[in-house]
Specification:
This protein is 43% helix and 20% strand. The longest helix is centred in the middle third of the chain and has 26 residues, at 101-126. The chain is globular and about 50 Å long. It has helices spanning 3-23, 33-37, 42-54, 101-126, 146-149, 170-183, 214-231, and strands at residues 62-64, 67-69, 75-77, 80-84, 87-97, 136-143, 189-197, 203-206. By secondary structure, it is an alpha/beta fold. The chain has one domain (43-231): Trna Endonuclease, Chain: A, domain 1. Helix 1 (3-23) runs antiparallel to helix 3 and helix 4 runs parallel beside helix 6. This is Restriction endonuclease XhoI. GO terms for molecular function: DNA binding; type II site-specific deoxyribonuclease activity. InterPro entries: Restrct_endonuc_II_XhoI. Keywords: Endonuclease, Hydrolase, Nuclease. It comes from Brevibacterium linens.
């Protein structure tokens, strides 16, 4: 099975599980209960875990929903930790947005930036993770709809706004955010997936950001595992 097939299966599971969760809620998901349940991202999380196993790490290196130490707060629960012989190989966050994007985009940004900043401070101030600095990944799934694709009006503030943001759709804003996270090494790797159910009822997905595509993410994982193995003398 190709990487594309595996991603298609994981994205289809995202929709199936989320729809099942919504169907079980009294309000049909209006209050965001399906998103809070988070199990709709499990198939994508498992696919990412498998990337590390494919590079030769043992199954026991995968830890789901671990607590990691912070600096500005005592601890933070991440979605996935890969740990090998005591070394942190990777810590990865998985987030999604299905509807109400305009209301929640800033929250997603603040969560992502805060998680990385706190974890890195724990390392620089307390050497919380030992000799290797944290390697952080960010995986985001966005439902494409009219709200995410519409071009937005001109933004204003008390001081000049970076022109790149002007006129961008919410989809494009997420791309800029994640692209800059990677460029500035806020996160060492990202995977940005957009998805929708088309007119024929088929689940489709795309990876519009080249620096946060599935292939780019896999390459980053491969490099990190090779580095950790070299440190341990396993290469």
């Amino acid at each position: 099975m190709t990487d594309t097939d595996l991603t298609q299966e994981a994205v289809a599971a995202f929709w199936q599980i989320r729809n099942d969760q919504v169907g079980r809620l009294d309000d049909g998901g209006a209050a965001g209960g399906a998103a809070r349940a988070a199990k709709h991202l499990n198939a994508i999380r498992d696919l990412v875990s498998q990337l590390f196993l494919d590079e030769g790490l043992p199954v026991e290196s995968v830890v789901n929903e671990p607590y990691l130490p912070g600096y500005y707060r005592p601890r933070k629960r991440w979605d996935l930790l890969i740990k090998h012989k005591g070394l942190m190989v990777a810590a990865i966050e998985f987030k999604s947005q299905v509807g109400s994007v305009g209301k929640n985009l800033s929250n997603r940004f603040e969560e992502a930036l805060g998680s990385s900043t706190d974890t890195r401070a724990a390392q620089t101030e307390n050497t919380a993770f030992g000799e290797l600095p944290p390697w952080l990944g960010y995986v985001f799934v966005l439902r494409e709809d009219e709200e995410t694709e519409a071009k937005r009006g001109r933004l204003t503030a008390q001081y000049p706004i970076d022109p790149v943001w002007q006129g961008q759709s919410y989809n494009e804003r997420y791309q800029t955010m994640i692209g800059r996270f990677i460029e500035k090494e806020v996160y060492q790797a990202g995977w940005f997936i957009t998805t929708k159910v088309d007119d024929k009822g088929q689940v489709v997905y795309s990876e519009p950001l080249a620096t946060a595509s599935g292939n780019a993410f896999r390459a980053a994982v491969r490099g990190r595992v090779e580095y950790v193995k070299a440190v341990l003398g396993e290469n």
